[in-house]
Structures are given as C-alpha cells and as structure tokens.
Amino acid sequence: MTRLLRTLVAIAVLAGLVGAAVVFFGLYNTSARSGHWQATNWVLHTTFRNSVRLRAPKAADAPPLTGDMAELGARHYDTACRMCHAAPGAEASATIERMVPVPPPVARAVAHWEPPQLHWIVHEGVKMSGMPGWPAERADEVWAVVAFLDRVPGMTEADYAALTARPGPPPETAEEAAFAYCASCHGTEGRPGNAAIPRLDILGADYLARAVEDYRSGRRPSGIMQQALSVVPEEVLPAVLARFAAVPPVGAAAEPGPGADRGAALARAETGNPEVPACVACHGPVPEGLPAPPPGVPRIAGQSPDYLESQLRLWRDGWRGGGPRAGLMRQAAQGLNDDQIADLADWFASLDPAPR
Predict the structure, then answer these.
(1) Are 339 and 321 in contact (CB under 8 A)?
(2) For residue 124, how far is the Cα from the chain centroid?
(3) pTM more than 0.90
C-alpha cells in the first residue's frame, strides 16, 4: 500500500512538472492556425453538450415563443450575433471561418437543441469559444432570441432580410441611420406593431432621455437595449429621441382585455400604505379635482399590455431599476401576483393615450 501511494505521488508530481513546463516554457502551441488536437475537440464538445443538458431550464419554464418575440430576437441577433454565425442561408466571412473553434452557421448551431437549452447557451455563453454571455443578468428577454432561433430551420436569407428590414429609404446621414435603426423596432411614429416592444409616442423627451441613461449605466438592465444603444452614436442620440418625443400620442385604445374591470378597481384602490399611493395617483388618469401626476412619471395609458406585464414582473422580482421613484415602484409591485399584473395591464392598455 505504501509503495502504491508513493507511486501515485510520483505520478502526480511528474504531471505537475510537465504542466508547469508547458505553461512556463511555451511548449503548447496556441496558434489558431494549428487548431486543436482531435482528442481536445472531442473533450471540449462532449463537455459542452453535457454541461448544457445538465444546466438548461426545464421545458415547463419556457414561455410561448410568439412571432412578436421572434421578430425582436431577430433584430437583436442581426447586430449582436450575425457577424459570427451569419444570417440564415448566408455564409460566414473568411476571417470568421479561421476562428478556433469555428462558429457554426446559425442553422447548424441551433440543430439538435431544444428551446430551454438554447436559452441557457445564449444567456450563459461558452468559455474558450468567443461566445459571450448575455450583456445583462436578466434571463427573461433571452427568450426573444430563442423564439427567433427556434424558427431558423427552413428560414431563407430573403426571409431573414424581410424580418430585419429597416423602414424608409436608405439613410443619408448618421442621424437618419440611427433613427431608422431605432424605428425598426419602435416604429417611425413611436408606435410599434409588436406587442413585445413599448410605444414611445406616449413618453416625453425627459423620460426617454432618462431611460436611455439608465440603460447605459446599467441601472435598468437589458441586454437588448444595451446592445441597441451601443450601435447608435452618442452624438446623434438626442436628435433621435427628440424625433420620437415630438410625435403626438394618438390612436384608439386596445380592446379591453378580460381582466380590465378588475384592473381598474385595483389601479384606483388605496394600498393601505401611506408611502405607496394608488397606481393612478402617479400614472393617471387622475380623477377630477386631484393633483396632476408628478413630473417625470411615464404615462402608460394605451401602452402595450404585453410590455406592461413584463415591466411589472421585473419591478416585482427585483430586476427593474432606474428613475427617481424606483424604490416606490418596487414596493408597489411586490404584493402583486401574476393575475393582478395581467389585470392591471389589461386596463391601462385599454385607455386612450393621454396628451403628455
């Protein structure tokens, strides 16, 4: 037994010396031209597959992957991921093809993975591959990219181009290019046709500027918005926000959802906490004879119900920040369950957009 122990210790010491020699004398060739040994490839890929399958969320945790989510995810993919994984039906550049490991074309990258597994890969990234993790800690918005990836098999390059097209004629200035980029999600009038994206025409210039600053600073985490703002030149951003803020809030309200009546009662109800007023006291519509809502609070009458639901959940679950009244909103949302959040969203979305 003693001889066996001495043998094992000697092997461990020898292995340590060999490892130290490799590290300190540069014996391992790190050139990307030489690639990995076949055994190394097998170990890395097998480890990756098993790691994803062990840690991916359960299928029951995946939300419905809607077309609106897929459109939003495609637009994020277009600026954040396409340079490595190419568009569906397109080839990667010659430089990307020389990476080690080579990023697979998107159709091959998503093959054999279920949506929860794709979610884990996009959110966590992959060490030693150049694949980064999601820019923010939030996991909810990753499902938009998963909804797009779930539709990639069978998608043509023309399909992808139509999905990610920007509105209007080709831009001639940096400001026009930035506006077209923002409008591709939010609409040229600040009224998107996508229920997952907020409308901007009901928000004032001050609120938009503060929201952008909150995204940039990380006080309001969002991998999608942080990526989008990294694409827009900072010097043209004020002009872009001014264009959205100049659009008057118009349009008919959405059809009342099934919980609108319950949401109305809940929004008007006193909370019993003197530090947390009723929803309408800040967001309106304020009953006649009461003070106007405080400045800087967003108007949410006529906002997308899907967006309102997602934001209330973020406030409740501690993922939303930003703005001078962040603490108040967290308190207001903490006691809400999912049904109450849906009811509030149904009611506010059913209101006519109010003048700013």
Answers:
(1) no
(2) 13
(3) no
